[in-house]
Amino acid sequence: MPEFKIQHITRYTYEGSVRDSANQIILFPIKDEYQDIVKQEVHITGNPVVDTHIDYYGNEVGSFTYSEPHSVLLINSKLEVTTRQRPLPINDIFPEQQWEDLKRLQYMVPYIDFLKQEYFEGLPELQAIVEQERSKDETPYQITLRFCNYVYQNFEYIKGVTTVETTLDEVWKLKAGVCQDFAHILMVMLRLLKIPARYVSGYICTNSSNMRGEGATHAWAEAYIPDYGWLGIDPTNNCIANETHVRLAVGRNFSDCSPVKGVYKGSSGHKLEVSVTVDDKNAFAYDDKVVHETSPLQQVTEYPKNSYQRYMEIIQQQQQQQ
């Protein structure tokens, strides 16, 4: 039974002094038969009181407000978690029966949200690919693995080319992105075949240099398989998400599962940096020096211009020079 120590640091640095910072955090891992929380502590600048509740999708959500003037907001989550390997689906049911079972889910409340399809300009093109890639005699489980492989093979993993605000159309045009983009595209493909699909945020806990997504929060998808339940599938690494994937939250998309988001009064200019360490010997330092004792913080966003705009400007400049 694997046990992981995870430290997740989020740091906002503001251009000037700000106040009344109201935030929502989803940093409390899912608790079920495959995942146990041994210990968790969350330290926040100013030590505000964190109120928690369970949202519509079953995630534990924290809310806090830090009213005093500040130029830096540090949120430091320290976690010990154990996971258990989940058995894989067994393909011993006739495919026709499984697809019939999925049809009945379309009108059942727990699955409706995970079947809603967001429209974007590239949807007809992707739908044609879905029809081309699928095989009529395959089960939903086999189709899910096929689509996972398709996203892995046809989208390039490039850090910084997209942001959390990048649209599906932009990802489709780029054919590139990071884990959240891969997950979103896979969910579209699954939902086109009426397979309920949901977004998962969490951590990937492995020392393998071949795995993408370490050093930050990770994202993948879950597909609902008849007579089995929710199957975690990681298109960024083309694998099934099992005991090395620690789940924080599930939802329709990234917006439902964002680890940290909020508003404040003050200058709009700010920088967001995130660092995630797993099984690090210094992972449980308590004060602000922790940002120097663990792996360097990775800059995620610097406002106002987003990464997609910068990428398109570079392409245009290259075209003009040719």
TrEMBL record:
Pfam family, any one: Transglut_core
Location of the Transglutaminase-like domain: 171-237
Segments passing through the bilayer: none
Regions annotated as coiled coil: none
Protein name: Transglutaminase family protein
